[in-house]
Structures are given as structure tokens and as C-alpha cells.
Structure to design on (560 residues):
């Protein structure tokens, strides 16, 4: 199946000369959740805005469902819904009117049944006649999601969907994404919360300084780049590492109460057996040991640092 | 053409008028009535007639034009500035709507609102002074052309402005003086000769002159010149908007 979104050599240099996107290519498959990770100012929003038609590309091509987003922008934009990062301010309009406007902008006839379903799905039905300014921040964000969904897009862009919201609301947003995915909507979200990508994404792209430095299946990425940490809690603290243990990559931690060893879980030899033997040879007794997989966040920090 | 989208924007903008009915309709009517009392009643009673028309009746076309221009300008500038200010403009710009459709919808709504105010002022004026309308078709033509032209100018200002100060600046510092000096309250022929020549540089003179001619059959400049200048002004605004959309100026970086 051809990708639902195909970006080829897309670049963007703003009028001031700032190059926000270096030539970048990316394919998004129908039905997947793709997380675009990157630090602030990496080019995430520029990339999304260019696909959605808010920013003019300096070069390259964007095909949405096979339609060029410059020459066939009407067909292309019909397939896309956008939930922006910035929350619109000062709205006196009622929720349902806002949703109706969004549908109208896409040239579609009114559909009150659909609007009712979307508002109910997003737990907004009770607030349908409330003015936007009366709603809490989380509710407002859901209104934005409703507005983006009311023309039944095939691709939904969520730009920083959980920036600055509390934990409960973040979980709420994750549930919404899961529901949408189940309906077959392709979702592209940007975030700098790694746990968000870890929780929701099928694939992860990492962007930094306008360059897409990596695109990988999330699980594969975790496997490939995931390093593990072995921690051995000693029965009695030591002040110096015994000679037999030096040169193995072990560090003293917790003021000598434990030993720390970082290894590649995918490696042929992890070195763990050797370490355990060396511990026994040195006569060090331990009362516990545990291993920890590095999180996407740690992987991400490493990647961005290296690039 | 995406007509449903244009309709959606148009109706949305018109709904804003309903929400702010005092500001949109009542205040221009009130201020125009005050003009009638001050200029028509107090001062007008000391000026007998201008070119055979009572002063109170003479100022009616100018007053309508002045309100029409300021209303079209402020409605259109506010209409396109506000979604940029609140951040909702993304929705219009990412929808399958062309720039032409966006312009028609916003400018159409602003012009409509201004024309509603203009008609209300006309009806209010009928209560104060006897008014004749010699060339109703021409009056309508100047009325619509002026509303559309100034709505286009307002649209440009609304895109250009990046704060409320700028949004107020142009109408206040340029358009209001031009409207006042454009012969709303007097005939250009009443000015000293040098000022008469200078006045001809003011585009508003042609609009008011043409509009007044359609009421009383008398004008400061010829009808053809009035119409030509009005159309020229309209085309200039259209050209600027075309340039804005071609370059993405401020709307699409």
C-alpha cells in the first residue's frame, strides 16, 4: 500500500534566512501512530505546518493521499486534520458553533449526528452550548480535537497535544489517540515528552536542528539502542573497587553500597557472567541485583547529544 | 469554488455582528445622529444653502459615506486581525479554501455590515431632513463600490497590523482625516483655491462627490472622474491583496 503521507526532500528556510528544515524525506503509513520527537526549536511545528499548508515550503514535495499539497491543495487538505499547539484565546463562541464552522470550512454540509457523536466521544456533549472561555484548559484542547475531526480526516496531526496539561488529562489524550487509531485514523504527533511516544507510537522519528536524524519502529528502536543497566547491591559497602573487578567497566555507586554496570542487551556477550564470577572471586557478597532497560528518553538525549 | 466554506466564514462574521450589536449598529447610528444635531441643526441653521440644497440635506451623502468607509474598514480589519490575534486563523488557512474565497468571504461580510449601517443612517437622516435621491442606481453603485473598496483596504490593514495599536493607527490617523477633508461637511468649492487643488489628491473627495451627485445632481468633480478614481482605488486594493497572497505576507511564512 502506498504511504498516506509522503514527504520528499522537503526544506524550509524562513525569510530571515533561518533554515528550519534541512532536506527531509519521510513516509507515513495509513493507520499508524507516528511520534515526532525533538527538542524545542527542532523543526517539529514547521514540519507539521508545512504539511498542513500553514507554511510555504522552500523546496521538495508533499503528497497527501497521493495529492500534492501545493498543486492539489483542496484534495490534500481534505484528508488532514490539525490540532495546533497554541491554544486560541478569548473565545466567546459556543462549542457547537465552533465545531459547525470547522465542518463548513471544509465545504461539507452540516451533520448534526456526526457532531453529536464526536462531542460525546470527547466528553464534550454536556458543554456543547458553553462558551469556549468558560471551559477548562483540558476541555478547550478537546474542543480543538473535535474541530479537527469534524470533517472526518484520514490523518490527524497533534502538535504537542499534552504540553502543559496535568497527568490525568494526558492519560485522557492518550485514550483519545488510542480510540482514533482503532477507527483507522493515521496520527502524527509531536512531543517532547518521551513517555508519550513510548506509550502511544508505533514508530518514532527524531528531529533536531531541522534534520530528521532517525526514523524507527519504536520497539526496534528500544531494542537497538536500548542499553541495560545492572545494579548489584552489596551486602557490605566497599570504599575501593577490588583489583579483580577493575577493567570490566564497573563503577561504584551509592557511596560504595552498590556496583553499576552498563551493557548492551543485544550484544553477543553482555559480560555479566564474568562480572558475577569476579565478584565471587573477590569475596564480595551481595543481597540483591536488578537490571533496568534505558527509556526512550535516555536514548533520545544520547541521540540529540551525538548529532 | 468552495461556496459552503465562503458561506461558513461569511455567516460566522455576520454572527459576530449580532453578538456585538451595540458596537456594530447602535454606536454609528448614535454618532451620526449627533452629527446631524451639531452640524445640521446648530451650525446648519446659520448656513442657508449649499448649491441650492439645505445644509442639513447636503451633508447626508457625506455622512453616509464617512460611516460606510469607517465601518467597512474597521469591520474588515478587525475581522481578519482577530483570528490572527486569537490563533484561530490556522483553521481557515489549513482548510481547502483558496485565498480568493477567504477574501471574498471576509470582505463581503465587512462590506455587508457597513452597508447595513449606511442604510440605517440613510433612514435616520430621512427623519431629520427632506432627502431627494435623483439617481438611485448610481447611488447604489457608489455605495457598494465604496463599501467593498474600504473593506478591501481594511482587510489589508488587518493582515498588516500585528498589534491593536497598528490596527487603530491607520484608520485614526489617515482615513478619518481624509474622510473629514473629503468634503463630507462642505463642498470643495467652498475651500480657498490652493486647498481645492490639494483636496483633489484625496481619493475620498471623488467617492463623496460621486455619491452626492447621485442624490442632488451636483458634484465637485465630474461623474466619470469620480467613478474612475473609485475603481482605481478598488483595483489598487485588489492588487495589494493579490501580492499578499502571492507572497504569503504575514499569513503564510
Amino acid at each position: 500500500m502506498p504511504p498516506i503521507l509522503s514527504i520528499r526532500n522537503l526544506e524550509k528556510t524562513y525569510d530571515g534566512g533561518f533554515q528550519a528544515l534541512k532536506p527531509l524525506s519521510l513516509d507515513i503509513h495509513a493507520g499508524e501512530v507516528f511520534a515526532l520527537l525533538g527538542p524545542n526549536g527542532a523543526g517539529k511545528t514547521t514540519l507539521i505546518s508545512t504539511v498542513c499548508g500553514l507554511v510555504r515550503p522552500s523546496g521538495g514535495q508533499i503528497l497527501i493521499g497521493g495529492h500534492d499539497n501545493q498543486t492539489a491543495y483542496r484534495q490534500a487538505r481534505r484528508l488532514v486534520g490539525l490540532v495546533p499547539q497554541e491554544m486560541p484565546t478569548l473565545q466567546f463562541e459556543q462549542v457547537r458553533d465552533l465545531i459547525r464552522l470547522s465542518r463548513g470550512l471544509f465545504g461539507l454540509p452540516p451533520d448534526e449526528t456526526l457532531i453529536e457523536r464526536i462531542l460525546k466521544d470527547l466528553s464534550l456533549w454536556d458543554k456543547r452550548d458553553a462558551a469556549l472561555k468558560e471551559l477548562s484548559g483540558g476541555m478547550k484542547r478537546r474542543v480543538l480535537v473535535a474541530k479537527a475531526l469534524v470533517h472526518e480526516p484520514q490523518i490527524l496531526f497533534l502538535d504537542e497535544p499534552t504540553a502543559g496539561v496535568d497527568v490525568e488529562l494526558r492519560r485522557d489524550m492518550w485514550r483519545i489517540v488510542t480510540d482514533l487509531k482503532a477507527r483507522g485514523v493515521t496520527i502524527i504527533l509531536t512531543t517532547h515528552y518521551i513517555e508519550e511516544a513510548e506509550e502511544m507510537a508505533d514508530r518514532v522519528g527524531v528531529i533536531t536542528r531541522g534534520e530528521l536524524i532517525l526514523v524507527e519502529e519504536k520497539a526496534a528502536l528500544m531494542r537497538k539502542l536500548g542499553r541495560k543497566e545492572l545494579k548489584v547491591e552489596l551486602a557490605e559497602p566497599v570504599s575501593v573497587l577490588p583489583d579483580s573487578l577493575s577493567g570490566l567497566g564497573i563503577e561504584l555507586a551509592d557511596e560504595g553500597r552498590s556496583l553499576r554496570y552498563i551493557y548492551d542487551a543485544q550484544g553477543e556477550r553482555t559480560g555479566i557472567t564474568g562480572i558475577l564470577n569476579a565478584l565471587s572471586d573477590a569475596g564480595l557478597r551481595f543481597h540483591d541485583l536488578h537490571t533496568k532497560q534505558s527509556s526512550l528518553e535516555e536514548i533520545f538525549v544520547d541521540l540529540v547529544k551525538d548529532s | 469554488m468552495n461556496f459552503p466554506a465562503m458561506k461558513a466564514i461569511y455567516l460566522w462574521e455576520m454572527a459576530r455582528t449580532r453578538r456585538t450589536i451595540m458596537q456594530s449598529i447602535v454606536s454609528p447610528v448614535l454618532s451620526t445622529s449627533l452629527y446631524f444635531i451639531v452640524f445640521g441643526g446648530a451650525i446648519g441653521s446659520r448656513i442657508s444653502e449649499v448649491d441650492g440644497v439645505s445644509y442639513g440635506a447636503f451633508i447626508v451623502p457625506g455622512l453616509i459615506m464617512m460611516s460606510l468607509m469607517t465601518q467597512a474598514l474597521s469591520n474588515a480589519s478587525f475581522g481578519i486581525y482577530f483570528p490572527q490575534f486569537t490563533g484561530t486563523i490556522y483553521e481557515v488557512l489549513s482548510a481547502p479554501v483558496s485565498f480568493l474565497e477567504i477574501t471574498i468571504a471576509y470582505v463581503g461580510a465587512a462590506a455587508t455590515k457597513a452597508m447595513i449601517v449606511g442604510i440605517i443612517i440613510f433612514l435616520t437622516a430621512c427623519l431629520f431632513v427632506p432627502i431627494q435621491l435623483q439617481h438611485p442606481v448610481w447611488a447604489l453603485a457608489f455605495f457598494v463600490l465604496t463599501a467593498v473598496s474600504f473593506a478591501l483596504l481594511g482587510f489589508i490593514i488587518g493582515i498588516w497590523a500585528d498589534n491593536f495599536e497598528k490596527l487603530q493607527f491607520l484608520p485614526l490617523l489617515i482615513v478619518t482625516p481624509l474622510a473629514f477633508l473629503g468634503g463630507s461637511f462642505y463642498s470643495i468649492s467652498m475651500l480657498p483655491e490652493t486647498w481645492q487643488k490639494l483636496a483633489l489628491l484625496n481619493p475620498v473627495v471623488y467617492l463623496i462627490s460621486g455619491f452626492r451627485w447621485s442624490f442632488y445632481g451636483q458634484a465637485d468633480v465630474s461623474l466619470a472622474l469620480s467613478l474612475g478614481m473609485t475603481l482605481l482605488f478598488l483595483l489598487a486594493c485588489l492588487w495589494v491583496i493579490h501580492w499578499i497572497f502571492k507572497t504569503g505576507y504575514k499569513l503564510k511564512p
